[in-house]
Amino acid sequence: MAEQHDRHIVTLKDVAAASGVSISTVSRVLDDRTPPSRSATAERVRRIADDLGYRRNMFASGLRRGATGTIGVLVPRLTDHVMALMFEAIERTARTRGAFAVVATCGDDPVEEKRATETLLDRNVDGLILATARLDDTLPASLRARGVPHALVLRTDGLSPSALGDDEAGGYFAARHLVDLGHRDVAVITGPWFTSSARDRLAGARRALAEGGIEIGEDRVISTGYGIESGHIAGRTLLAHESRPTAIFAANDNLAIGVVAAATAAGLTVGQDLSVVGYNDIPLAAMLPVPLTSVRTPFDQIAASALDLLGESAGTVTRALPTLIPRASTTAPKA
């Protein structure tokens, strides 16, 4: 799956591919704890690493040197499928690197976020991964000022090292799919406006609709929470219009599930009377009575990037490209 980087981070895998040797060989050659090999292969690997601009990840090195080997992960809540999937991906990836991930939850409360962060730091974690960033959040700035290795996932404040999906591209894919099916009256339910993900997904959707010559009115855009109940309320509001939309793009799958419930309660059949697109492609999406079209987020890729970013300088952002997964919840509008 493709990945776009604002600044490409050269990894051991990159050096191995360019050198024609295994990753373990590159790791051994570039390990400064051992006397440097003078073999032709070692010299070539070091030269290629220099040419590519490889820089040893200090966090990963610290783990190998016997630090606590523990990574703190902060999420709003684990009842949110996306946050649970993100944590599992981080924990899984950390395990392959000889580390262990622990999680704390804080809701959407900045005070609780700070408290949970200090609790993790009190347990001597080697770094923090935050899935909680608000655009107005002061916590990342505090961590930068204190020199705490950290990375943001799924959201960004535009300053701290961040690993996320390309939300603008994902929003574009979702709305473009609806435009290509022939929909001209499309509504969008975004997440909280304090999140970069909500803003970027809406921006992508607007771009796709504009390309199709469709102007989306403000009455067709609702910003709300990311929960199922929020989607249900927003769905009821949109479907109560005398001239209801023929398609709704919901900026996460929970919102989409809420919309499906609202449509069903209104006597509409999703995939016939109304097309619905979700986002993140949680496992439940494919198992609904009408399988949900969704934009798949590459959680494992984001997790790997986040671990690579721990200890990196501010301003480094990686964006993994999502994929649209069409299913039965989207069809051409009725004539």
From TrEMBL:
Give any Pfam family that matches: LacI
Keyword hit for Protease: no
Alphabetized InterPro entries for the sequence: HTH_LacI, LacI/GalR-like_sensor, Lambda_DNA-bd_dom_sf, Peripla_BP_I
Q: What is this organism's lineage?
A: Bacteria, Bacillati, Actinomycetota, Actinomycetes, Micrococcales
What protein name does the entry list? LacI family transcriptional regulator
Give the source's domain of life in one word. Answer: Bacteria
Keyword set for this entry?
A: DNA-binding, Repressor, Transcription, Transcription regulation
* Domain HTH lacI-type: from-to ranges: 10-65
